[in-house]
Amino acid sequence: MTTRDGIRRRADARDAADRAYAAEAGPSLPERLTAARERKGVDLYRAERDTKIRARYLAALESGDYAELPGAVYTKGFLRNYALYLGLDPEDVVRQWRRERGDTSVPAEPALAVPKPLAAPRQGLTFSPVVIVAALLTVLIAVFAVYIGVQLVRFAKPPTLAVTNPAQAVLDVDGDTSSYVMKGTSIPGATVSVKDSARDQPYRVTADEDGRWSVEVSLRRGRNEFALSALDPETGKVSENTEKVFITVPFLVIEAPTLAVDSPAEGAQFENGAIPVRGTTSNAVTVAIKAVQTKNADGTPVATLAPPPASPAASASPGASGSPVPSAAPVLSGPTVGPTTVDVGSDGTFDSPLELSAGSWQLVVTATSAEGKAVTLTRNVAIVYKGVNLVVTVRGSTAWLKVWVDGKVSKATGAAGTVYDPGQVLTFTARQSVEVRTGKSSATFFTLNGDNLGRMSNKSNPETWLFAPPNPPVRTDRR
User: Of 153, 220, 412, 436, which is most buried, counting CB atoms within 10 Å of its CB?
Assistant: First the structure.
């Protein structure tokens, strides 16, 4: 057998394999590439960073728009590198590309020989009066610019600020202390502002001709936080450093905590999203929030009165009107969310969103001191969902997401989709429907109009789900 016969036999065998492969019903090359990228859980921009291939070329490969690619030689190189990145057989991908193009070979593109530019002869340095004058002018301009720059820097220098009393940033005072005199230094004539977290307007004082200043501030029980800054009235510059001072006035052991709930208001009605529960407290180390459902979405009652506790607690629980009632009074017993413990800020504020399903709820907010004394406030609210409110949470691993809101691609994920890390929470609201395509169903969890649906599938494959209440979620083929 001659070499020519061997080459012909191998070519015939390859053609037969290609025809057999083409006879099988399977996805096109763009569909294979898109599905492989979604299984990998990356978007086009992440693939661009990993493969060093421009995103528009990757998009052209996945859409089959080969005319947007620079040439057959580059296209084959892009396909091999992209196939290796996606875990596909590069030679199989190139054969399918040739087959779908209708040819079996791509001729090599001729290399273009670019002529080299002619090297001009170097000329020696020549000095003329014009050159000398230009050089002198350049030096003078540079010196003037440096002078102006130094003056601007001196003029724009911000004022200094130092606190001499108290000597430490954190100070504990006696329990009967109601005020404190702060002292310090700055530039002469500077305006020193002392911002108290409990006051709307800061304290202000002007430094004397020696730069000394002093100001008396009021104190309340608990931790008082102050932020000090200086302003130069001539230049409008503010001191670079903001001094912090913390003064703590201890609570008396016999004092119970105080509690005020700013949101929600009694009888408030919410449509979509989390309910903001915020307020202020003093002499409390923890704040707990609990919600008890009193009525279903159709208005039927679900809560019952539970018997009062065996022993009265050292707290007060306001009723619906806000007036205190004994904590031993009967309490509601029904479907419950919480209790959830929220952090209390240094200024006594707390803020926590609360996800509730449709219906009527009673919110119970309890503040507890270090000595175990507690005070409780309640608020009654109604949840009436309109349209679609979908909360998507990524758990366990990263997940690629693409979302359509009322049929249009959401700006949050973009047309190419976005990869989200574990713990990421996204909220989408729509009038009629929200459609979510995830690259990993097992890592994607859903809450629809306050109802926790969990994950729609335990599979790690890409899936698309349509949420259009009151209809149940359904799986679609949208990509």
Answer: 436
pLDDT value of residue 320: 41
pLDDT < 70 stretches in the chain: 1-8, 10-25, 103-127, 150-151, 153-156, 252-254, 272-273, 298, 303, 305-333
Task: Give residue 306's pLDDT.
Answer: 62
pLDDT given at position 363: 86
Q: Per-residue DSSP letters for 62-126? A: HHT-GGGSS-HHHHHHHHHHHHHHHT--HHHHHHHHHHHHT-S--PPPPPP-PPPPPPPPP----
Going by C-alpha positions, the residue among 162, 348, 133 that lies closest to residue 245 is 162
- 213-253 pLDDT, tens per residue? 999 999 988 889 999 999 998 888 898 888 999 999 887 66
Ramachandran angles phi, psi of 76, nearest 5°:
-60, -40
Q: pLDDT per residue over 456-475, tens digit each?
A: 888 888 999 999 888 899 99
Tell me the C-alpha distance between 478 and 436, whole Å. 9
SS3 59: helix
At 458, is the secondary structure helix, strand, or coil? coil
Q: What is the pLDDT of residue 330?
A: 55
In Å, how far are 172, 247, 313, 322, 353 from 168, measured between CA atoms? 10, 10, 40, 42, 37
> Cα separation of 471 and 468, whole Å?
6
Residue 12 region by backbone torsions, left for phi larger than 0, else alpha for psi between -120 and 50, else beta: alpha
Alpha carbon distance 246, 347 (integer Å): 11
User: Residue 173 in 3-state DSSP?
Assistant: coil
User: What is the pLDDT at residue 150?
Assistant: 63
Residue in the block written with tokens 């494959």:
461
Domains annotated on the chain, with CATH: 3-101 (1.10.260.40), 161-249 (2.60.40.10), 258-383 (2.60.40.10), 388-476 (no CATH)
CA pair distance 9, 30, nearest whole angstrom: 31
Region label for 299, one of left (φ > 0), alpha (ψ between -120 and 50) or beta (otherwise): left
Separation CA 455–CA 453 (nearest Å)? 6
State which H helix or E strand residue 341 sits in: strand 336-342
Predicted pLDDT of residue 285: 83
Closest CA to 86 of 36, 51, 48, 32: 36
